[in-house]
Specification:
CATH class of the domain at 222-392: Alpha Beta
Largest sheet: 5 strands, antiparallel
CATH topology of the domain at 222-392: Alpha-Beta Plaits
Number of helices: 24
Radius of gyration: 30 Å
Strand order of the largest sheet: 4-3-6-1-7
Strand content: 5-15%
CATH architecture of the domain at 222-392: 2-Layer Sandwich
Shape: elongated
Distance between the termini: 70 Å
CATH superfamily of the domain at 222-392: Regulator of K+ conductance, C-terminal domain
């Protein structure tokens, strides 16, 4: 009797364990949802590291792992799945906007207009090709937009299309994700193939391209800070103060940092009231564009390096200080009156790797590194004023992130009526946060918003968002994926995707090379950036052996990303 009772308890325990395990794998609890998403993401990231002919699919492999598990019956509660998918999409597009925002408007300067217009050409030709295939094949536009997004490897476009479709009909069209998944692999191949073919069509010589690149870089660096040493020889400025000289050259960017007195062979920090005498030597920070004018007004350039000034000024130190105090964000350098109050000089400000001349009207941002020259005591006092706390800089500014997301959702929910469209257009959960993030990262300091985020923190936020989104999309699209490929013309989608990838890139690539003489290395970055494709950029950087592809990619990426999201939504709204 005791043995039977023990057997019965063991059987009950075994049944309970089996039910618990089955519920964990196939149930609808929160634990099951998080477990399944974690397994999909972990496996996808690991498999995404595998390279085929030197190219890997990266984080996009999460989508394919989700499709496989979805095909074999693994599901997630629809409400939980919907939340994770939309929240992941919001995190992803917002972090992308914060990343590209600071360079979004400046990308139209210094020759960037041509590159951006060529990128717009790639995007518009891709949309036109998609519309032509839609009329020729009869495939629903929702599916065609998925194929388009996969063909140009643009995940935010996929998210925007799904969001627009859901807003219109209240349900999700899984063929959008299926089209994306089918077209994506050959899309990567098509982008790299177009780069290779353009090289052979125009018989590109890497040596000549490097020479051209060096000339362009010399011309482009006209606004970066340039230090020069001068001797005062112009009688027109003898016995004039630095402030009076600044008035004479009010439209030029320059800062007189230090003065070596000819009379007593002593060096001093220059102030607005410092008087210039004949044969005094001055250390000046200016720009390449203004250097000749500054030389003409002051005197002659002398062969005296910066390290010689450091040896001569033993009573002074030169230190770079981080601006980390939030209250300084958005203030102009002249408002702090550092030279007058502390007797120091700020000569240069490093922002995002570029040295800027420290003019009084320059707006400061958290994360700037300022070059301060003065006595040990004075520099220490300025350090306390500016912050210089790496720990504070590494702290995440969550307020700005969530304020931006809230504003982005509000903007994305505003209905905009257009004639001829039966339903008002909304930017949605993809477009709204993207636009707000771009605007906040560029103009937020005007409203005392701390927009600085470390690159690693932004990248972490972006990757968490995109992996959650792809995992959810893959799981929901997995049911019916094989049937779509085998019985519903899915193999033809691969060909349509390749046409959408290849034709616009070849046309615009040839136009950019033949008519606009775009450097081939820059053109590689343009092609990768207009399709927002990191694998193509990695291939371009490895082939070029320099940073030109990355510069071209960064120049067109912000506008390309924005237009990819916008056009995906518009195609759904106009044709569905």
């Amino acid at each position: 009797m005791v043995t039977f009772a023990r057997f019965k308890n063991e059987l009950r325990l075994e049944t309970y364990c089996m039910n618990w395990f089955a519920d964990l794998l196939f149930g609808e609890s929160v634990g099951h949802s998080i477990l399944l998403l974690s397994l999909v993401i972990a496996a996808g990231i690991q498999l995404g590291k595998i390279k085929i002919f030197g190219v890997s699919l990266g984080v996009t492999f999460v989508l394919f792992v989700g499709i496989i598990l979805g095909h074999f019956g693994f599901t997630v509660n629809q409400d939980v799945l919907h939340f994770f998918r939309e929240f992941g999409l919001i995190l992803f597009v917002y972090s992308v906007g914060m990343q590209v925002g600071p360079g979004f408007f400046s990308s139209f300067k210094h020759g960037g207009v041509v590159l951006n217009m060529l990128a717009v050409g790639v995007i518009l030709l891709g949309v036109i090709t998609t519309i032509i295939l839609y009329y020729m094949t009869g495939i629903p536009m929702s599916t065609m937009v998925g194929i388009l997004s996969g063909a140009v490897t643009n995940t935010p476009g996929l998210g925007a299309a799904q969001q627009a479709y859901t807003d219109m009909y209240g349900v999700t069209d899984n063929t959008i994700a299926l089209g994306y998944a089918v077209a994506y692999p050959l899309g990567v191949v098509g982008i790299i193939l177009s780069i290779i073919l353009i090289r052979y069509i125009f018989r590109v010589s890497f040596d000549k391209e490097n020479e051209q690149l060096n000339k362009e870089e010399e011309e482009a660096h006209t606004n970066e800070a340039k230090p020069i040493s001068l001797i005062v020889r112009n009688p027109a400025i003898f016995n004039k103060t630095v402030a009076e000289l600044a008035n004479l050259l009010e439209h030029r960017e320059f800062v007189i940092s230090r003065i070596w007195r000819h009379s007593d062979k002593q060096i001093e920090i220059a102030s607005a009231n410092s008087v210039l005498h004949e044969n005094d030597k001055v250390f000046v920070i200016t720009t390449e564009a203004d250097v000749e004018t500054v030389k003409t007004f002051i005197g002659e350039e002398i062969d005296m390096e910066r390290k010689q000034w450091i040896r001569m000024e033993s009573q002074f130190i030169n230190r770079r200080i981080l601006i980390t105090k939030p209250e300084l964000n958005g203030k102009r350098l002249g408002q702090l009156k550092l030279r007058k109050l502390y007797g120091i000089n700020i000569t240069r400000i490093n922002r995002a790797g570029m040295d800027l001349v420290a003019t009084p009207g320059l707006t400061l941002q958290v994360g700037d590194r300022v070059n301060v020259v003065g006595t040990e005591t004075a520099v220490s006092n300025v350090e306390k004023l500016l912050g210089n706390s790496m720990k504070r800089l590494n702290e995440p500014n969550l307020l700005t992130i969530f304020v931006g997301i809230a504003l982005g959702i509000i903007l994305g929910s505003i209905p905009i009526a257009f004639p001829g469209i039966p339903q008002p257009v909304k930017l949605g959960l993809a477009g709204g946060p993207l636009i707000v993030a771009i605007l906040i990262s560029r103009f937020g300091y005007h409203y005392k918003l701390i927009t600085y985020t470390t690159q690693s923190a932004n990248f972490m936020l972006r990757e968490i968002g995109i992996t959650l989104f792809l995992a959810c999309v893959g799981i929901s699209a997995g049911d019916g994926f094989v049937e779509t490929i085998v019985n519903n013309g899915g193999l033809a989608w691969v060909g349509y995707g390749f046409i959408i990838t290849f034709v616009p890139l070849m046309i615009v690539g040839c136009i950019g090379r033949y008519f606009y003489k775009v450097n081939y290395f820059t053109l590689m970055g343009l092609i990768a950036g207009s399709t927002t494709d990191p694998p193509a950029l990695a291939y371009s950087n490895a082939t070029a052996g320099n940073d030109a592809p990355s510069v071209g990619y960064a120049t067109v990426y912000p506008l390309a990303m924005f237009l990819r999201v916008l056009t995906a939504q518009l195609l759904i709204l106009f044709f569905c």
